[in-house]
Structures are given as structure tokens and as C-alpha cells.
Write a structure and sequence with these properties.
13 helices; 14 strands; 10-stranded mixed β-sheet; alpha/beta
């Protein structure tokens, strides 16, 4: 019999706040994290805006020596994990470390390390490439560093499914506990790819918005949407087996009840045009929870503000839910923090937890008017409304689709 899994801790480093409390306050205030890129000169770039993390100091979360051996994506992950573990009031000295695991993914790893050492290679030769290039760069080091920092000796995995990474990481952690392979999983996603090659590459793909207006750059489901805005940060949650959480008197935020995946098997960057892949992920998650499709009244959409994603995700919701789709409130957290790539699904998971807890569905900020086929309720306004379920979607390049279903704990 599958075990029940609950959320007992949360941590976040985001473009609108470097804690869950600050992030959620920003969401409720409809705060946007978009501004001109400060990390490098964008004079020759089509894209000028991003959602950078502000006022982050790694030394506030770890010792300076450890921080020097981590790139930003790892620093963000360790910082978010620290908050989540402290929020859960986990005392690892009282836990079996081999029953506590880690599933933290990054879609890309460190482009900064690659750019820096490639420059050194070209200018000074192969003998001058830094000896830590590989452990600084590779994407699994977020999970590795979090495991080391907090003595998590159970299953340690790094799921890489592009923009579905965060949701898949939490979903696989959920499955790990469900089937008895761990009592605790520290799970989420992290990313820091606002670099010259990152911005240039996504721009060449025509995926990024070229808008220079922070209020009109990341506008999911709007008829004037022109691409996503690159964000960065990390979101990490503590998942626990229900009886384990109860035994130690843990605060329970919500229950994870369903997880569904699929592949479009269609195109390396475009979702399936009929929405069939994403629809399958959603229906699989609802079926996994033993819920009815009509039980779902809220979806946190992938909602990237690219033309294809928003249109095809809309088709997917209609295909999955039929006429009930009209009764579902749909929003996009990316309207405030941009697209955190491998961390996107994780921060949206935390958003869903807070919305369940607070009885509040946030506005899709910047949304003014949608075109004809986009005719669902994309939350032009926020709603104070108690909801029982929250479904979160993540759709990644390569056709990766992942949906995870949360339920108010009772």
C-alpha cells in the first residue's frame, strides 16, 4: 500500500524575495522581479531584461570556504534547502540519515563556470583550466552539495528534464517516499543561467521576450506576449511520509497526492500542437490521486508567455478537462518571477502550497487581453477562495510533461 506524503518545510531564493515569506509577500503584492540585466553588458543583445536574484550573500547561508567551491546555482540550492530544513524543524542528529534523501535538479548547471574556463582555455591554454571546473559545472552538484551540507545519505538524484526539472524532482521524491525508499526527501530545483551564452542562446531560439518594458515583458496568456523572461533562483521543499511527520510533531502544510508524466514525442522545442501530451500528464496526476477531474478548480500553469506554450497548454487543459475547463482558475507565477527553468516547477509548487494554505489564488500579473482561442479564466484578478486541490504543470524542451497535484491536508 502506497504511503501518504506531506509537505513539512519550504525554502526559496527568488527574484522577488530570498525566503518563502518574502516571496509570498511579493506574490500577494503583485510584485515583479524584472529589470535590466546587470551581470554583463547587453548592448549587442536583443534581450535586455531578466529576473535576477537580488541581495543574495552566500555567506549568510554557508561558510565562505564552502561557498567558494560552489557556483551560484548550488549556492541558491543550499540556501533554499537550509530554509526548508529549518522550517521543517528537522534535527538530522535524531534521524537515520540513510532514510533521508535528496532530489534537487538543475536544467543547465553552471554556464558561468563553462564560460569562464573556456575563456581561460583559449587565452592561456589547457594547462590553465581550473581543476574544479567539472564539479563546479555539472548539474547534479546541487543535489550533491545539499546532501553534504545536511547529511542526507539516502537516495540522491538530479532529474534533468529542462523546464520540467523542478516538478519531476519533487514528483520523483514523492514516489520515493510513497514506495518506502525514504522517510524524508529534500526536493526541488535550482538555476542560474543569466549569462551571455544563456541569453544569446535562448534569444537565437526566439524564445525570449525582447520587450524593454518590465511591466510588459513576461505576460502569459496575453495576446501581446512575445516570449519568456529568464529568471533564476531555487525552491526546495521537505517531503515526509505522513506517519513519520506526525511522530515528530511536524507542521504539515499540504499533502502531495498525484504525479503524472508524459512525453510529447513531437518536437525538440515546441509542445504538441493539440495539447495531448500535457493533457495526459494532467489526467495521469488526477488519476494517481484517485480524484475526479471535476474536483480540480485551480491550475498553476506552465504559462511561459511564449506563443506556442500558452496556446497549446490551453488546448491541453481543454482536452484534459472538457467543458469543466471553463470552471478552472488558471494562473502563471512566471508573470512575476519569470522563467526559472529547472527551478520553475519547484517555485510554482511552493506557490500552490501557499495558495492552499491561505485560500488565495494570485493574479496573472500583466495580463490584459487574450486572443480568441485563449478563452479560459487566466486570473486577470486575484481571488480569495478556499481550494481543495492545486494542480501544477511543467512542460520542458524535448517534450517532457510533468504535473503534480497537491491537496489541502486533512
Amino acid at each position: 500500500m502506497k504511503k501518504r506524503v506531506v509537505v513539512t518545510g519550504m525554502g526559496a531564493i527568488t527574484p522577488i524575495g530570498n525566503s518563502v515569506e518574502a516571496f509570498w509577500e511579493g506574490v500577494c503584492q503583485e510584485k515583479i522581479g524584472f529589470d535590466r540585466i546587470t551581470y554583463f553588458d547587453t548592448a549587442d543583445y536583443k534581450c535586455k531584461l531578466a529576473a535576477e536574484v537580488k541581495d543574495f550573500n552566500a555567506a549568510d547561508y554557508m561558510d565562505k570556504k564552502a561557498a567558494r567551491r560552489m557556483e551560484a546555482f548550488c549556492q541558491f540550492a543550499v540556501a533554499a534547502a537550509k530554509e526548508a530544513i529549518e522550517d521543517a524543524k528537522l534535527d538530522m542528529e535524531k534521524e537515520d540519515p540513510f532514510r533521508a534523501g535528496c532530489a534537487i535538479g538543475s536544467g543547465i548547471g553552471s554556464l558561468q563556470a563553462m564560460e569562464r574556463e573556456h575563456t581561460r582555455l583559449e587565452q592561456k591554454g589547457p594547462g590553465k583550466v581550473g581543476p574544479l571546473l567539472v564539479p563546479l559545472m555539472i548539474s547534479n552538484m546541487a543535489a550533491g552539495n545539499v546532501s553534504i551540507a545536511f547529511n542526507l545519505k539516502g537516495k540522491s538524484i538530479n532529474v534533468v528534464t529542462a523546464c520540467a526539472t523542478g516538478t519531476n524532482s519533487i514528483g520523483e521524491a514523492f514516489r520515493t517516499i510513497q514506495y518506502g525508499d525514504a522517510d524524508i526527501m529534500v526536493a526541488g530545483g535550482t538555476e542560474s543561467s543569466i549569462t551571455p551564452i544563456g541569453i544569446a542562446g535562448f534569444s537565437a531560439l526566439t524564445a525570449l521576450s525582447a520587450s524593454e518594458d518590465p511591466t510588459r515583458c513576461s505576460i502569459p496568456f496575453d495576446k501581446d506576449r512575445s516570449g519568456f523572461v529568464m529568471g533564476e533562483g531555487a525552491a526546495v521543499v521537505v517531503l515526509e511520509e505522513l506517519e513519520h511527520a506526525k511522530a515528530r510533531g511536524a507542521r504539515i502544510y499540504a499533502e502531495v497526492v498525484g504525479y503524472g508524466c508524459s512525453s510529447d514525442a513531437f518536437h525538440i522545442t515546441s509542445p504538441a500542437e493539440d495539447g495531448s501530451g500535457a493533457a495526459a500528464a494532467m489526467t495521469n496526476a488526477v488519476k494517481d490521486a484517485g480524484a475526479a477531474l471535476t474536483d480540480i478548480t485551480y491550475i498553476n500553469a506552465h504559462g511561459t508567455a511564449t506563443h506556442h506554450n500558452d496556446l497549446f497548454e490551453t488546448r491541453a487543459i481543454k482536452l484534459a478537462f472538457g467543458s469543466h475547463a471553463k470552471d478552472i482558475k488558471i494562473n502563471s507565477t512566471k508573470s512575476m518571477v519569470g522563467h526559472l527553468l529547472g527551478a520553475a516547477g519547484a517555485i510554482e509548487f511552493i506557490t500552490c502550497v501557499k495558495e492552499l494554505e491561505c485560500g488565495f489564488i494570485h493574479k496573472t500579473v500583466g495580463l490584459m487581453e487574450s486572443e480568441e482561442e485563449l478563452d479560459l479564466n487566466y486570473c486577470k484578478e486575484s481571488y480569495q477562495e478556499d481550494i481543495t486541490y492545486a494542480l501544477s504543470n511543467s512542460l520542458g524542451f524535448g517534450g517532457h510533461n510533468a504535473s503534480i497535484l497537491l491537496k489541502k491536508f486533512a
